[in-house]
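U., I forgot to send this yesterday:
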Amino acid sequence: MTERGYGFGTLPVFLAGISTILGAIMFLRFGYAVAHTGLLGIVGIILLGHLVTIPTALALAEIATNRKVEGGGEYFIISRSFGPTIGGVIGICLYLSQAISVAFYMIAFAEAFTWLEPVLADQFGIVFDPRFISIPALIILLGLVILRGADLGVKVLYVVAATLLGSLIMFFLGSPLEGFDPGSVSFTDQIDQPDSFIVVFAIVFPAFTGMTAGVGLSGDLRNPRKSLPRGTLLATIVGMVVYMAIVYKLHISASPDTMAEDQLVMAQIAVWGPAILIGLCCATLSSAIGSVLVAPRTLQALGADNTLPGKWGNKWVSHGVGAANDPRHSTIITGILALIIVIVGNVNLVATLISMFFMVTYGSLCAISLLEHFAARPSYRPSFRSRWYVSLLGAIMCFLLMFQISFVFAVLAILVLVALYQGLRIAKGREGDLASLFHNAITQATRYMQIRLQQRRADQPPEEWRPSVIMVNDRTFDRRSPLTMLRWLCHRYGFGTYVHFIKGMLTETTFAESNAVRSRLLELARKQHSTVYMDTVVSPSITSALAQTLQVPGVSGMSNNSILFEFAQRDSLDVVENVVYQCQFAAGTDMTLMVLRHGETHFGGRESIHVWLTWNDKANANTMILLSYIILGHPDWEQAQVQVFAALPETEVEGTRQEFAQLIKEGRLPISEKNIKYIATDTAETFRKLVIETSYEADLTVIGFDMHGLKTRGAEVFTNHDQLHEVLFVRAPRQIKID
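Result:
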């Protein structure tokens, strides 16, 4: 097998991580943190920080063991999971964080030489400037890495790690400061007027961001699926244990006032004080080495993916040297950027922004892991698995802590991300990854909910009814009223499925035609802002298409319980008779039947809906009223009113009036009592005249029918009242209860 890059194993990943974790913050600011928050406070900060880093390490280990991880480390993982645009945005931010971190660590490295300040002043009259140390040190470091590559950097890591270990041993072997009694302080003792918990957390947090440093070596690992999770997790856990030990040792060795005044208090406690200065040099140098190894590889991967502006620029930064593909050009760019920041010397504000981008990166890794858990893609089979709730916790903590540390910089970081995203999307002519980001997770969630709804349906009371309407039609593109009605019925309370019928046998040609028609349907739905599910069916006849469709489960997770048919007033009698036949055919499924007769007014001004109830509508009445209420809930009908006309034999009028009054009082009928009119009528002929006289100008009239009348009178059931505008005929298989 061909060895990847330098063919490193797990140890370099661990060393890059642990040497970055045990960095300048640990030596310079842990005493300050104990002094301002007490032992319990700093333990809380360490635990809180690891609520971000541990979920991220677990998520990183999971994602890394699912696919072949190539050069680019975290950028490669994010871009291959989130897509090239989002991956490019986060990759650029990640690179800037890593590159600026080189300068940050070199400035901290110079702090180890503050003891030279009085020497230079007394002997040479020179005012000490940390840049006397940081600039030459950075140039030497960059020269070595450019000339010798990652191999030298990793060898240096071994020496650095050993030196760090020695300095920590010296510290732990030290005794409490003279005159300090460990028993005189409690776990909560702190200085007077301390900084707030969140301020201390913001200062200490960069100490926790180094655990993914080894991921940048992914392109130089022999077996990244094995080495990345092991090395990263081990570095995270060891770092947390060492941090806990250090703050406890500080707590029992010096007073809060002493720790607050002397940032190098660890040197006073250690058996041999200079060991801490040497350790600080090594810690900052190792962190700088880790960043200077990782940042160019991130930039190299960005160039290889043509993410940066300009074809020539991408080619130049992606260029590698030698068999190991060392990113020499990217290292030069990283060095120039770091050198500029070191010369400027003030990185306080930039360091805060770095923390924001690290939070974005860590939150993204946790979010990827979370989405993959719910997406359940067959191609996602990591050999190591985290837990979805751990990833969720990490993502939430990253988001919350960004705003806790600095609201301004959190907003600024988000704005920069948005600007980069739009810039990359437009410059590269790419579709936005955000549109498909949650596709797999939503698909899996829909699958789960559909199964749960179907299982629940077995125990669902029959009176719990909402329309789940299906429609099969071949006249889709030459009339708009049927789809409009279906859209109203499923706008908020119901579910709608529209199936365009294509006559013929299923062949390669008809299948291609069905796909083309489905695309037209989806475009139509987008233009209409419709929530109707659109599909096609190829079948020898409308009856066979209807039979197929009636047996298909509803897209809502519940079975379709209603079917909508349609015809236009101008259609021939054959069309109406075909609708009658389809109603009789579908009645065997125990569905609610609806037939829309539409004319040229297209529902007029959509201001009035008239519902007509007769002595034959005992089963239909509640369904008719509920459907009218559902239509009224659509914005197209926001100015409309529903009026109910109860045309009943004179002997039934008073009883029905009392029943409706009680339903309205209980809130079970969504209409006002003044909108119900009771009419005494004893013949069908009188009823027909009343309907025409009363509802001639109604925008929609709802009338009930039953299967017995349809069987005996046929098409006449739907052609009666031809002076009316749009009419919706409704037949319910049983009475539903309105709550």
